[in-house]
Amino acid sequence: MISLHATRGANYWSRTPITQMDLNIGEYENISSADVPGFTQSLVAAMPGLRDHRCSIGEPGGFLIRLKRGTYCAHIVEHVALELQGMIGHNVGYGRTRGGDKVGDYTLIFEHRHESVGLRAAALALEIVQNAFAGNLDSVDHPVAELRALDKTSRVPALIQHVLSYSHSDIAIILDSDLNDVPEYYKVRRRAERLVSVVADAVPESGIVIAPAKSWEIQDLARDAGCRVAIFATDNDVTSKDKKVARAAAMVEDRRIIIEEFDKSFEVGWIHDKAPIDAQVAATLAAFTLNELGSGAESSTGKRDATDRAARRDRDRAGVAD
Fold first, then answer.
1. Distance separating alpha carbons of residues 111 and 160, to the nearest angstrom
2. Cβ–Cβ < 8 Å for 110, 95
3. 135 pairs with which residues across the strands?
4. How far apart are CA 142 and CA 187, in angstroms?
5. Is 255 in contact with 271 (CB distance < 8 Å)?
6. 155-164: long-range pairs with CB below 8 Å, 24+
7. Which residue, 22, 125, 138, 290, could crosslink 3 as a Cys pair with Cβ 3.0–4.6 Å?
């Protein structure tokens, strides 16, 4: 296992919380489920619910077919992690496994209902699959009991619960449009579109996405997702092209934060040295915009059509656990 973490909201992969695990499977790269006698039988005997997994075949029993034909270790871990959660009553089914930049590297994700359960299910699933390949898998009773106990704990840490109670869903902030901290694999337009659309989808229709000035492609993608755009800059270089489409613009002049909205200009604060300038300007613009939303027309929260939400969710879950 290279890394393991969980998300608490919309993310690159899904609009629901997911657990992500990065693996290097080493020698298992050259071994499939069909290469080990008794592998599929012992795994399904311990976890009968795997028979119902659709996988990319798209119908119950699809994953069983994949096992018999031969599928790879990381993909099996994904399904086992989902099934472990299902065995304690969590209705989860969405998962993905993708190869990395190097041979043997994989990223697998799966949805969770309880963050601690999801994280532990990932580690337990890896152990179960390793035992199955070694011919040592008899039962998953102990892992299931452990997850059932975890399920009784708080689903969100107390501090996060406190913060979430003050959160606002009419706005989202994109601080940096440069993809300089991700592998080349992710630096393609369709993935950028999906990432921005996920961010925008977390905002109610006609909500606001705050984006950097001159990041016109991101601004366009946010508007295409049905959101309004506000832009910010860490200097006073905001172009007419930015102002033409933004409902508000924040900039810095002589360490003063200035916000322009339509034909009005406001001095709203000063830059200090205890935080990054871009974060200060974006946060100030967010506070200003939220105040305007609250004092103006009725908030758009809750107005998104329920049918549209259901359709989006169904598309996300189509072909679950591939």
1. 19
2. yes
3. none
4. 42
5. yes
6. 155/113, 155/114, 155/115, 155/116, 156/8, 156/115, 160/8
7. 22
- For residue 223, how many other CB atoms are within 10 A of its CB? 14
Question: Can you list the alpha helix ranges (DSSP code H) found in 261-320?
Answer: 277-295, 306-317
Q: What residue has token string 């994904």?
A: 78
Token pair 């690159």: residue: 12
Q: Which of 20, 7, 74 is nearest to 322 (CA)?
A: 74
φ, ψ dihedrals at 95, nearest 5°? -160, 160
- Give the helix/strand (H/E) hosting 96: strand 95-99
Bridge partner residues of 252 (DSSP): 257
Residues forming a β-bridge with 23: 106
CB-side exposure of 13: number of CA atoms within 13 Å?
A: 24
Please, which residues bridge with residue 98 across strands? 107
**pLDDT tens digits, residue range 108-153?**
999 999 989 999 999 999 999 999 999 999 999 999 999 999 999 8
Domain extents in the chain: 3-163, 171-295
Nearest to 284 by CA among 318, 237, 249, 313: 249
Give the tens place of pLDDT for each residue, 234-252.
Answer: 898 888 888 777 888 999 9
d(CA 229, CA 171): 10
User: Do 30 and 36 contact (CB within 8 A), yes or no?
Assistant: no
Letter for the amino acid at 125? A
Pair of tokens at residue 272: 């200090």
